[in-house]
Predict the 3D structure of the following.
Amino acid sequence: MEISPSAPRIALLPAVVRDQIAAGEVVERPASVVKELLENALDAGATQISVDLEEGGTRLIRVTDDGAGMGPEDLALAFTSHATSKLRDPSDLVHIASLGFRGEALASVASVARCQVISRTAESETGHRLSCEGGQQGEVTEAGAPLGTTLEVRDLFYNVPARRRFLKRPSTELGHCLAAVQRAALAHDGVGFVVNSDGRRAYDVEASMDFLARIRRTFGAELIDHLEAVNVNDGDLILSGYLGSPRISRRDTSRQIWMLNGRFLRDRVLSRVLKEAYRGVLEEGRQPVAFLRLAMNPAAVDVNVHPAKSEVRFRDQRRLFGFLVSALKVAVHETDMATPGESMLAGRARRLVREENPLQGKLADPGAGPQPESVVRERSGRPFVPGDDFISPGAVTQSHPANPASAPLQSSDPDSDPWAPTDNLQGPYLQVGKTFLLRALPDGFEIIDQHALHERLTYELLLQEVRAGKVEVQRLLVPEVVEVSRADRVLLEEHLESLSSLGIELASMGETSMMVSGLPARLRHPDPAGLVGDLIEVIGRTGEPPTASDVLEQVLHSCACRSSIMAGDVLSQEEIQALLERARAAENDQTCPHARPTRVRFTLSDLERAFHRR
Amino acid sequence: MKITCQREELREALSVISAVVPARGAKPILETLKLIATEEGLELVGTDLEVSARISVKEAQVDEPGVVVLPCKVALDFVRDLFSETVTISCEQDKCIIRGGTDQCELVTLDADEYPVISHFNEKDSFSLQGGNFSRLVQQTAFAAARDGGRYAMHGVMVEIADDEVKMIATDGRRLALASQPLDADGRKSSAIVPTKGLQLFSRVIEDPLDQVKISFDENQAGIRTQNAQIFARLIDGDFPHYSAVLPKEGEHLMEADRDLLSQKLRLVANVTGDEARAVRLTISKGKLELKGHCVGRGSADAQLEVEYSGEGSEIAFNPDYVLEGLKQCQTETVRLEFQQRSSPGKFILGENYIYIVMPITIDA
């Protein structure tokens, strides 16, 4: 750029340029426009919002709401930056309850597109129209209009070719726009959403749908079966929503939705909360499915961190973190983790609901209040009842699979039925490949991974002993000497005492070796060298003492794994029965500590389906 | 070849061989046995490559010498179920006919040249001892050897000959059994780790406990020779724990109890312990031993018995299974337990030249 020597070097940027720069932060692609417009509509109190898109929003985005609308004076300021109805003075920033507040959005959008707004308030008989092209505002004129506001954004980035070139194919942009609408729809019960793309219905949610129904509409019905309801509060903090069973986990986080006071968030703290809650039941690299809403006092959180507002700052982060993790952990362990012939069951469940109980089925009507929650809980709380009730069409109660004739339509608790047959874990068992155990159930069969199950049991019992401070230690006659590096020896020496409280008796022996003189008595065939290696790895990686809770879990996992019945041990019938009986008594037997499932069940109906008898 | 022998003798020989030959071998040839008929008689040979056996059948009438290799299990089953007193075995080309009275079977044979080479007992440098003593040592120790898991060297029994004494030691790292027996060895020394399975087969072929048997140790195998049998076991190559270092000196606490009573009470209390991790706590005070078993989520059990003890009150906990297995082998009516403190080894004296050491379980470490 050529600068004449006499001209002042610094000049105030024209407003349009300022807005275009702001637009760079806020308006990235059509989806960002959709998000901003939806937020405006929601803040205006709309109950029905429709979004029309052309060419994925690159040609046209039109958002129509039935909200409060704007009078001509308000309309005149609509495209002016930092003009907002949502804040009045700085103190309002402390407790922001509306979605938007910066007053930048429309101005930014208007600076890079051809915009037109038509609005009518309830008091006014006629509506008004204002258009704005590339930041050049027109005049407010009268126009006929329904109650509410319609905002049109045409030819996004028509005046910013650099940006336009970065837009993806219309189908991709449409996907992003839909995602934006879906997030809004998931966050706002009581508001209906309709999306039309190039004249065709792409997505709709009715105003009367509740959260679960919205999740189903958005992500499909199969998902619903594997969700566990969460509903807890702590003072003015309310956490509600649904957690997915670990086995519907995904590689990406696209099914992880956090909402804070109706705002969709992508927050690192909250992602960590989920990771913590699923620790030990989710395999490495898998992402849980979760749809969660947080409601808290707006004063306890700062949303003014980023223009896109998808990150926030919590005031009492540590306490919040602890509360959320412990609440979610409970729910995670209540999800059903046994892996039945999944696709078969899901297909069947859908069909049954359609055929037999189209309106009252649990899937068709998730119901208000705690009802679906109790159904889910019941199912997962009794892991050994044969043929867990995936196929139950009865919405209110779980029909006991063994006496289907009597159970389906009563609303009584099946646990209270004294005549219901109990599964006494009788054999015969079949061991396949020295790895898997097969057992007939009254109405099907189950396959058990012996190593995974035994490992889980050993782990649970060890954890119990450690928590009770009563680890039984089997002393070794001949201490096992393990060679380690000098640095690792120093590392272990720091933690000898806390290791000993876990039942691992270590002592150093010379510069580069450690001596194992006692191990938890529960470990069947411990492998001291492997265990010491694991300890070094875990302690070295986390840098925390082995008694710190997450390290403890990892240490015990490795203890359990290093001693469990390995795949490849031949088991007698008695041994198998003993293993299953102990599993029944244990708290959590559905996955091994590495989060692989321990058992898979097939019901008679699955088999009938597999053989096309139905 | 053609031979005739007593059915019962043949059956007995076959059953020893089939204890060696695996039912499912890595190769078909390893599921077979070899019959060798010579002027001297009939010999049966079987192996799983770790343990090998040569059993001779007495009073076999050899009409025609020869060698044949045939499936072991079928041969044993057929001979066992035959009715007749005598059995005739003859061979034609690739068929072997086993006939008893009017009944017979024809078995497909395998190529005898493929059969592994099995050595003969080496009389030179062998040791001689009474069969009954040998099997007693095995019985007193082999149960303590590691069965699965643990160091490979502990999967066998250490047999040590020195100072005119034969010692057998077995341990799985948590308990150790040591038994010894005088032996006329002319000051020679020898030691080897013999796999438990082989050693148990050694004592199985000892028919008369009063007979002398001969044992020998080569570089890589141990052998035993009885009147009719030779068994060889490949040695375990590894470092057996230095057991002499872990043998406790005389303990501070010294208790004597009735063997049977202690076993019964221990078993009683052990009923209320965990399934996998089991511990019974022994609390000793003057003249009295109290036993306590407990299991989280199940309950607890108490028992007591009179014992000879005059020291200060003390306590120690053991896995009851380990103690009971030892007590089962106890030769004397009273058993002696010595220990220093709750975390040091418990030493059970189960007879003359018979020590059993059990490492305690410590709780609230």
